[in-house]
Design a protein that fits this description.
The chain folds into 2 domains: 46 residues; 150 residues. Helices cover 21% and strands 35% of the residues. The chain is built from 3 helices and 14 strands. A hairpin with a 5-residue loop joins β2 and β3. It starts with 7 loop residues before the first helix and ends with a strand.
Length: 217
């Protein structure tokens, strides 16, 4: 099992705390410290699990949009997107809970033409208005025929968005482009005449689940 590099400080700190308390429990022969040490060990294991970064495989190609995040499909709706797509688009929203893999992946291959960080609120990420009102990072990718936008959105608990993308980068489909610490949501904006392949309530897997098939023209 591999882990996201951003998790190493948290993993080291939680493991060190657990080890220190368990060491004190042995030294003092204290059941209270044993209990605390066990709880801290559970937390350390959860932190490691949270930052896991498994390899993913699945369908690839310029005709498909792959899920950028693990989680539940909570919204599929047609909206106006004024920052990169510049028009009507279908937005597919995926909500990540605290048990999801939090590494995000490029949904398509192409050139990164748009990277924008917007400070904002920390509303419940499941709500409609959180897409623009919450703090978020948008990454726009130009494929051979289309503009695809991915948006990482902070939430009530998730207060730290990490994005690796820079303007001009070559986006490789399903390659890692960032993560959101401790939950939240990722939106994907695709052309309105795309064929959406998921339904509300489906569980998407980053780098594996096909969210939509793009129009050929």
């Amino acid at each position: 099992m591999s882990f996201a590099r951003e998790g190493y400080p948290f993993m080291a700190l939680s493991a060190a705390l657990a080890a220190a308390v368990l060491g004190a429990a042995v030294w003092r022969r204290s059941w209270a410290l044993w209990l605390l040490g066990f709880l801290l060990l559970v937390v350390a294991l959860w932190v490691a699990w949270f930052f896991r970064d498994p390899e993913r495989s699945g369908p690839r190609g310029e005709g498909v949009v792959i899920s950028p995040a693990d989680g539940k499909v909570v919204m599929i709706t047609e909206v106006d997107e004024p920052t990169y797509v510049l028009g009507r688009t279908t937005r597919i929203s995926i909500f990540m809970n605290i048990f999801s893999v939090h590494v995000n992946r490029y949904p398509v291959a192409g050139i990164v033409e748009h990277v924008h960080h917007s400070p904002g609120k920390f509303l419940n990420a499941v709500t409609e208005k959180s897409s623009l009102e919450n703090e978020h990072v948008s990454v726009g990718i130009r494929t051979a025929r289309h503009r695809i936008l991915t948006r990482q959105i902070a939430g009530l608990i998730a207060r730290r968005i990490i994005a690796y993308s820079n303007l001009g980068d070559q986006a490789e489909q399903a390659a890692r482009f960032g993560l959101i610490r401790f939950g939240s949501r990722v939106d994907v904006f695709v052309p309105t005449d795309s064929v959406v392949k998921v339904r509300l309530g489906d569980q998407a897997v980053a780098g594996t689940t096909v969210l939509a098939e793009l129009p050929k023209a």
